[in-house]
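Task card 7
Instruction: Convert sequence to structure tokens.
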Amino acid sequence: MAKVELKKPIVEEIANNIKDAQAVVLVNYSGLTVEQDTILRKELREAGVNYKVYKNTMMNRAFEGTSCEELRQHLEGTNALAISDTDATAPARILAKFAKQYPALKLIAGVVEGNYNDQAGIMALSQVPSREELLGKLLGSIQSPISNFARVLNQIAEAQGGNAEAAAEPAAE
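Output:
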């Protein structure tokens, strides 16, 4: 079998993974120990992020003609891809947190919802909370005025109830 035929399935795998992805982040993992890499992979897997090391030439071919085409300029050194189909911020958020703890990991660039982001863009994206956190904050914002209104009504009812009891006591004597 020719070398090209052996490489074709790998290129197709990469292309299929990035085709419907919400986020694709390219990282340089050079300098990470096996233990650190294992911790990173576990954390990404738990968040539903596919993290895999591919040859740069394979990624280069797979990126051709896709929304990830601009990532081709960064394909030098030891690179890996973090791909998420569901959460657009998860790869950047987890990788940036990990990079703070282990500076050997470097975020290079990424494509989020079809838009190319350089390293600064990916770092900015990593500051965005997860969808669940944002929904929780939204729910809290919506619920807060209702809760405050309920407390005010309760205080008014207690104040009137307290005055009514005080007024009723002297009449009973």
